[in-house]
Design goal:
The protein is an alpha/beta fold. The protein contains nine helices and 14 strands. Helix 4 packs across helix 9 and helix 5 packs antiparallel against helix 6. The protein starts with a strand and ends with a helix. Thiolesterase that catalyzes the hydrolysis of S-D-lactoyl-glutathione to form glutathione and D-lactic acid.
Length: 255
Amino acid sequence: MSLIVDVFGARSDNFGYLAHDEATGRTAAIDAPEAGPILDALKRRGWTLTDIFITHHHQDHVEAIPALKAEYDVKVTGPKYEADKIEGLDVLVEAGDTVELGDTSFVVLFTPGHTLGHICYFDRADNVLFSADALFSLGCGRMFEGTPGPMWDGLKVLRDLPDETLIYCGHEYTQANAKFALSIDPENTALQARAADIEAQRSAGKPTIPTKLGEEKAINPFLRADDPYFAKHYGLEGADPAEVFAAIRKGKDNF
């Protein structure tokens, strides 16, 4: 594996990430939730920040851009369709573009819904996905700006990635997500096992990520809106999966 991912906490429940290309030493912060934890992680690792990859415009993902640019000579890459909402972007990208971090290449995936221009970064060689607030462990982001159809389409793009893909998401919401998932899918034995693991991880003060996409496909209800089980659960037999997805998302919003 040529990419090292350092995981740390930021703000109240954000994950902070440093992505480090071993071959060249280039290091990217994935989003910029809070300057202090990012700078501390860089110091602990002995790495120099060269890049920032932004996924969307929400304040808890961009707040530290000015402080990090003041400290390091960094290049900030972010979503083209949110350029007017994010200060400090140097490179604008959209679906299908490739972002280079030394010898590591990330493909940009378009995942609208949480925000209209939300993007994810996928390193195909190492099977690493930075999904921010599009996809969580056992959950997905709220639809603050988008609509069910495009958000479901974006989640299907992520679902089509290899089962071995490691998901690094934007927030530590896994425990709460597990409780909701169990409320609508209580007989899922794989989900039951994962929920028990999550309780143990959180009790030990450990993060619940990364999680493998292959496992998420079997237990994350938001990746399974086209499973007839959920259509039946919500009384939507025969409905478009986007409508079922909307019902699951509404259920979580009100949970």
